[in-house]
Design goal:
The chain has one domain: Peptide methionine sulphoxide reductase MsrA (Peptide Methionine Sulfoxide Reductase, Chain A, 2-Layer Sandwich). Helices cover 39% and strands 19% of the residues. It contains 7 helices and 8 strands; from the N terminus they run H-E-H-E-E-H-E-E-E-H-E-E-H-H-H. The strands form 2 sheets. Strands 7-6-1-3-2-8 form a 6-stranded mixed β-sheet, covered by helices on one side. It has a two-stranded antiparallel sheet with strand order 4-5. The longest helix has 20 residues. It is globular.
Amino acid sequence: MKYPLALFVLVSLLSYASFAAAEKTILAGGCFWCMEADFEKLEGVSDVISGFTGGTLKDPTYNGNHDGHVEAVEITYDPDIISYQKVLNHFWVNIDPFDDQGQFCDKGPSYLSAIFVTNTKEKKIAEQSKKEIEELFPGQNIVTPILEAATFYPIKGSESYHQDFYKKSPVRYKVYRWNCGRNQRLEEIWKDKVLSIVPTPPTSG
């Protein structure tokens, strides 16, 4: 009986170590349906949750009041598989960094893009990442800000259908994404940029 107990303890410790190694980051890139789809396919990402952040209003809702907040996703990733820098690289090629009105067909404050950082290390990496993108587009204004992380409010309750929407309603999701012009605009912006900065080209999602 000692061996099963020892095995249980070992598995528990390994599971804890794996959980402890995971890191999280919050990114806003317009429609959180699309952000979920774009990041859940990324190797090293274990979870992507849709929600709101950036504002002071408590418990914002999709159909109710979310003034001051942006649609965002909380991404859980394994830094031993994918670095924070590469997470940001993937973020850039899946947004329009020039749009100061929203993202693609979705306009308004809640659809603005942003990188939310939690510490000095993340801020430094994010600033360098943004600088590299600016160098790819000389003379153009990259409007995506780097902001201090605020409370992240996951979509929940009766609005939980937004989580993994692209899996639950794939036809509706694909029709929305196409009609919104997201893929077309991403292709227009990123198709000819160097792959050392852009690790993966945009896909149909």
